[in-house]
Specification:
The chain is an alpha+beta fold and 223 residues long. The chain has helices spanning 42-54, 60-66, 72-77, 84-99, 110-114, 124-139, 157-160, 163-171, 207-218, and strands spanning 2-10, 15-24, 28-33, 36-41, 142-144, 150-152, 176-182, 185-193.
Length: 223
């Protein structure tokens, strides 16, 4: 089982955490979003992503109509989008899944063909290494999505910023976290910047919060 999980906060809804996860179960994809769950056949998953991302800046109703050929539970996922933060979280997860070819990652020889120089002994930890390398190379320090509007920071950022600062900035939807989990083991965590972030009253952020926020956002100038 391979899971991709994204988490942030919803400042305008006064929710400290909202999350979405997609789980690759080899023959199907399980999506859990705001307490709503849907299953998509793995052969249909890329078509689902294409529909969502082609309509990403249009109204949710248009997306809901466009996926009407899918099962009722898939359509209900769109009913869980109730704010800008939840909308952006849903889109970000789809963008990451598309960029990483998520539906292919448990197929035989997919990772082996990318990393042939790593041994192929079938060792359990060996597969963890391949997954880490793959997600690090595909996402860390990259702009993704068709218009390159989703920015993912290098993996070392997570170790340079205190956990309490990350938690607070997530609460205000200034940043989000991407985590990849394989067989209940965390493979990699990355910070990402949502497509747009809400204005937050300055008195809610301490000078230390602002210092680290500026550190994170200063990275944007390197693109």
């Amino acid at each position: 089982m391979l899971k991709l999980r994204l988490e942030t906060g919803d400042y305008n809804k006064n929710l400290e955490r909202i999350s979405i996860s997609i789980v690759n179960q080899k023959d199907k994809i399980l999506i859990n979003f705001n307490d709503s769950e849907a299953v998509i056949d793995i052969t249909d998953f890329n078509a689902f992503l294409d529909i969502v991302l082609e309509l990403k800046f249009l109204k949710v109703l248009r997306m809901k109509d466009a996926v009407s050929s899918f099962n009722v539970d898939v359509i209900k996922l769109f009913e869980r989008i109730n704010s800008t933060a939840s909308y952006q979280l849903f889109l970000a997860c789809c963008d990451v899944a598309k960029e990483t070819k998520f539906s292919l990652l448990l197929k035989d020889n997919f990772l082996n063909s990318i990393y042939p120089y790593l041994t192929n002994s079938g060792n359990y930890l060996e597969h963890h290494v391949k997954l880490f390398r793959y997600f690090q190379n595909t996402l860390s320090g990259k702009k993704i999505s068709l218009d390159q509007s989703l920015i993912i920071f290098p993996d070392y950022f997570l170790f340079e910023i205190p956990e309490e600062i990350i938690s607070k900035l997530m609460k205000f939807n200034k940043i989000g976290i991407i985590e990849v989990i394989f067989e209940d083991n965390s493979i990699i965590k990355l910070i990402y910047k949502p497509y747009s972030t809400p204005n937050v009253r300055q008195d809610l952020l301490t000078p230390v919060d602002i210092k680290y926020l500026e550190k994170i956002y200063s990275f944007l100038n390197t693109f």
